[in-house]
Design a protein that fits this description.
Length: 348
């Protein structure tokens, strides 16, 4: 078993890490960190648990420690659910102390020697870990997963990017409130409402998408060259980001070929049979009214992305439209970091 820790264990994503790691066949939680006001308390006394599940028994009496590498002993990998501004300072400290950091935070995502990875999409980018260690003198490392809405989008773009020539992608998101954390969106601001702006989200989707699908030469990543334009919106849904995608192709295509590309898509995690990997990363629904958050967000334990309404556009030639849904705190956050760690543990 690999001893692991969770940084920021009392927050929403930290709780999801703990839930998903409970009963994991290869990872054992031996350290939980949080802010100074929680340090020294038993986890069940320090946390306000927001998930539908119960706090796993294995961590209920675990004493929370300060988020400092000197307080985390005999741990190989830490999963970071820290706020961005804190992660930028603390994550390098843990990597310098010899631990692997599988981060959900955005602080280090676009650093040139830090892998930004979706295991089914660009596992070869993990080779940047060697460069990172040389550049920074670390025994440990940092690997990041993308923004929650980006992950769901790119999971569906990868099979199309491999088989078709994409010219432009336009995406409009309808994002769940859990993506902002438990206290992130006041109820009076979102009930009976839609908020048409999420700070920094559109920029992340546009830059991270091209980076993930970029060419890696062993040293640097050259971003993909097609255009991406995003518009991001907060909606009164608890979990599950829905995205409407409009795509212009270089040449004509058959809708059934697109669906087959989705259905046949497999990546390295599926070939290796990794514990958290969905057997089918992209699920195609044929019903006109699917996907829907309540019905589809937990497909394949929340680790698959569901697509529906796959069709040609009637107005613009050589254009494709579809709707996708991904669980933002599972596949889009904690589950993504855990799958990254599983892959690293398997191949490195």
């Amino acid at each position: 078993m690999v001893n692991v820790g969770v940084l920021g264990a009392t927050g929403m994503v930290g709780q999801r890490f703990i839930e998903l790691l409970s009963g994991h066949p290869k990872f054992k939680i031996t350290a939980l960190t949080a802010s100074a006001r929680s340090a020294g308390k038993r986890y069940q006394d320090a946390v306000t648990w927001h998930l539908d599940s119960q706090i796993p028994e294995a961590v209920q009496d675990m004493v929370v420690v300060d988020t400092d590498p000197s307080q985390v002993k005999d741990v190989e990998i830490v999963f970071s659910a820290l706020p961005t501004e804190h992660a930028a300072i603390v994550e390098p400290q843990f990597a310098a102390a010899g631990m692997g950091v599988a981060s959900n935070a955005s602080a280090m995502r676009m650093e040139p020697d830090v892998p930004l990875v979706i295991p089914e999409v660009n596992p070869e980018h993990l080779e940047l870990i060697d460069n990172q260690r040389k550049n920074r003198g670390w025994d440990g490392f940092i690997v990041t997963n993308p923004n929650c809405s980006t992950i769901a989008l790119v999971m569906t773009l990868k099979p199309l990017y491999d088989e078709f020539d994409i010219q432009r992608v336009y995406v409009s998101t309808m994002q769940a409130v859990s993506g902002a954390g438990y206290n992130g969106v006041p109820s009076m601001a979102i009930l009976d409402n839609l908020v048409p702006f999420i700070g920094g989200e559109e920029e992340k989707m546009e830059s991270e998408t091209l980076h993930l699908l970029g060419d890696f030469d062993g040293e640097t990543v050259t971003p993909a060259s097609f255009g991406v334009s995003a518009s991001c919106h907060r909606v009164p849904v608890v979990d599950g980001h829905t995205e409407a995608v409009f795509m212009e192709m270089e040449e004509d295509f058959a809708v059934e070929d697109v669906k087959n590309a989705f259905r046949n898509f497999k990546g390295l995690p599926q070939k290796l049979g990794l514990y958290s990997a969905p057997s089918t990363p992209v699920i195609v629904r044929e019903e006109d009214n699917r996907p829907q958050p309540r019905m589809d967000r937990l497909t394949q334990r929340g680790m698959a992305v569901t697509v529906g309404r796959v069709r040609k556009d009637d107005v613009f030639p050589q254009s494709l439209k579809y709707v996708l849904l991904g669980h933002n705190t599972v596949r889009g956050a904690a589950g993504a970091s855990i799958l990254n760690a599983e892959l690293i543990n398997e191949i490195m």
